[in-house]
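User: Hi! I'm working on a homework problem where we have to compare a predicted structure to a textbook description. Could you give me the structure for the chain below?
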Amino acid sequence: MDRFYSKVRVNKRPHPILGTPCHEWTACKQKEGYGRIMMKGQKVALAHRVIWELKKGPIPTGKFILHKCDNPACVNLDHLFCGTKADNNQDAWDKGRQPGNRLNGENLPWSKLKEKQVKVILRKLSKYKRGMVKELAKKYNVNPATITQIKKGRNWTHLRKERAYLR
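Assistant: Happy to help. Predicted structure tokens:
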């Protein structure tokens, strides 16, 4: 447990919906952002699954450990739940992360940015300079990861025309 928690940082701000902060995995991560940990020097495991098994026991066959907070690096047990692939798809739909779902951008209850602000951010990112992500995050009072997600096209995806600036 000491080894596990030595690789975790508790965010200062609580999650806007859940009310408690994410516990961020700070060590090795997959490209999708999920924490990875070496188990007994042989097997690589996903950190959020490891903490679930350490605290709650084995994960039933065919089940997944899902994030209420939508933060793949989070290992806060209060932000995790056990569910099926269908549960994961429904959760994504409910949160506006599925194609065809009109719940997006500033219509999301946890969105801190307005569409107009994101359009400005995208234009500024088209002239990207080192340090710009942190600068924009500070200006708009959001986490730098939010700006990075906009830059990579992982959120505000409905702004296709504005995203053309980044090409």
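For your comparison, note the following. The chain has two domains: 2-94, 105-166. The first strand starts at residue 8 and ends at 10. Good luck with the assignment!
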